[in-house]
Amino acid sequence: MSVMCSKDSCKARTGMCGHEKGMMVMMLVVLAGAAGHWMFHWF
Question: Which residue among 19, 22, 35, 43 is least packed, with the fewest CB closer than 10 Å?
């Protein structure tokens, strides 16, 4: 996470180091991937 925090562009875009935001985005990506996986199998 420290690597992402060291990026100035990330700081300027999020307005902070964004550890919680990074975790939230990762969770959203995982949930979206799981939902797409199940939808693909069901339909």
Answer: 43
- Residues of the chain with pLDDT > 70, as a percent, come to 47
43 vs 28: CA distance, rounded Å: 22
- Is residue 21 within 8 A of residue 14, CB to CB? The reply is yes
4 vs 16: CA distance, rounded Å: 11
Q: Is there a contact between 7 and 13 (Cβ–Cβ < 8 Å)?
A: no
Type and span of the H or E element at 9: helix 8-14
* Most confident option among 7-11, 15-19, 22-26: 22-26
